């Protein structure tokens, strides 16, 4: 009886796994067909407009009338904004083969809110690469991820971002300027300690990992090192599976100074000797502060062979207009 019960349980488990797999596959197929259908609807709308019908017959009321008539016949799903983004889907991806089978219409609906083709292409590529949920995508767009990454590169780098997404190939690719920690809900003018900032980051680790980007695996906080009989602790320790190295993060409530750079250099030397194992690349240190002085950074890091990266963080979402203006200025330069 015991053997029969075990076999029966295996049967139940096997059927359950098969059903789950089949349902997931069916959902992907339905989603892919839905996106392709909406793309085709967008194609029809654009063709209709290009023949001059929109101007001659309905003018600016095309979407209002189309929404009303389609809803009357086919039910929900044909609101004015939905139709507008179906049209934009076709205009942004004029080859249907460039559409991702991994993104839902809800993903595309958010992505198409972007103002430029560069942004649209970036978020589509990045969303597919990092398997963002719609909620995660909305957060990244709200924090102006594309602009923050773009402004840390040159014109050629911006175009590469748009065509292939953000690829982490070297330690410098880990940085954003700045990191945005608005999910901590700390008012900008509040007085807080570094320990409190660390505590809030740990309590919101999932969102912090999203902000850090793909490849980070959390190891621990206040990681202890004993060097020359003295004890030291690095605030946050990660391992980066793409770069294959430890990443040490120290948090600074105010401005990063030269002493912080020297201390991080000490930690990195320790990790190279004591923690790294065969196959690990050299560790990377990130000093994350509210401010950094570019001249001080230049002098403090000169001659250091270890990778000590300095980055700013801010507790509020960046100004969209300011970032857009800065990016446009970058793209205008030859």
Automatic annotation (TrEMBL):
<dbReference type="InterPro" id="IPR041527">
    <property type="entry name" value="YhcG_N"/>
</dbReference>
<dbReference type="Pfam" id="PF06250">
    <property type="entry name" value="YhcG_C"/>
</dbReference>
<feature type="domain" description="YhcG PDDEXK nuclease">
    <location>
        <begin position="173"/>
        <end position="327"/>
    </location>
</feature>
<dbReference type="InterPro" id="IPR009362">
    <property type="entry name" value="YhcG_C"/>
</dbReference>
<feature type="domain" description="YhcG N-terminal">
    <location>
        <begin position="18"/>
        <end position="148"/>
    </location>
</feature>
<dbReference type="InterPro" id="IPR011856">
    <property type="entry name" value="tRNA_endonuc-like_dom_sf"/>
</dbReference>
<protein>
    <submittedName>
        <fullName>PDDEXK nuclease domain-containing protein</fullName>
    </submittedName>
</protein>
<dbReference type="Pfam" id="PF17761">
    <property type="entry name" value="DUF1016_N"/>
</dbReference>
<dbReference type="InterPro" id="IPR053148">
    <property type="entry name" value="PD-DEXK-like_domain"/>
</dbReference>
